[in-house]
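Appendix B: a complete holo record

For completeness, this appendix reproduces one full record from the ligand-bound portion of the collection. The bound molecule is zinc ion. The inputs are the chain sequence and the ligand SMILES; the output is the full three-dimensional arrangement of the complex, encoded as structure tokens. No fields have been trimmed.
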Amino acid sequence: MYVNLGSRNITIDDTNFGSWCNVEGSGDEVPSDGGAWKEFYKKRNNGNWPRNCCVYGCREKATVGAHVRRLDGIQWSEEYIAPMCYRDNHHENDDPMILKPGTVLVPTK
Ligand SMILES: [Zn+2]
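The structure of the chain with zinc ion bound, as generated:
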């Protein structure tokens, strides 16, 4: 059961920076427009792609559009694309991750 947060871009701030995690996903899933998830993200974010990974404390370059969800109470939100480095885009566990304030997340749908 998922929480629909409105299918709009979300900007991480001090109310929602915690409790996100990678979701498996969607490595082989293709965006509806056929491009890579990074390109998908840029199209939905005015062409912008941040320089650095969105995980708090990470200084690596953002290289991949990772799938994330937010745990909201007992429910997961819909999926979002988050700019991450390869190292942090690990979906073999679902440990909560803290995202940097100011990060923009783009819904996959
Ligand atoms: Zn990182």
